[in-house]
Write a structure and sequence with these properties.
With 73 residues, the chain is an all-alpha fold. The protein has one domain. The protein has helices spanning 5-25, 35-67. The two termini are 28 Å apart.
Length: 73
């Protein structure tokens, strides 16, 4: 996990909560129009991470099958 992951997660949570407050209470901050974008990102990011992890594991399995396990000293 990158050191910046909690920072980015915090930024998106704050932006999402701002958009939610803007939409709920009609504050006219301009974030309400981005609420669906935040929700789409929140749903797409874990899906992308899952597929990236599966592809990475498949590549590692292929390399280990083709070339054998990593040598030990």
């Amino acid at each position: 996990m990158s050191a910046f992951t909690p920072i980015w997660a915090g930024v998106f949570v704050v932006l999402f909560l701002g958009a939610l407050i803007d939409r709920t209470f009609s504050k006219e901050w301009g974030l309400a129009s981005e609420l669906w974008t935040f929700l789409a990102f929140a749903m797409a990011a874990p899906v992308f991470w899952t597929f990236a992890t599966l592809i990475h594991k498949a590549n590692i399995a292929y390399v280990r099958h083709t070339y054998g396990p990593e040598p030990t000293d």
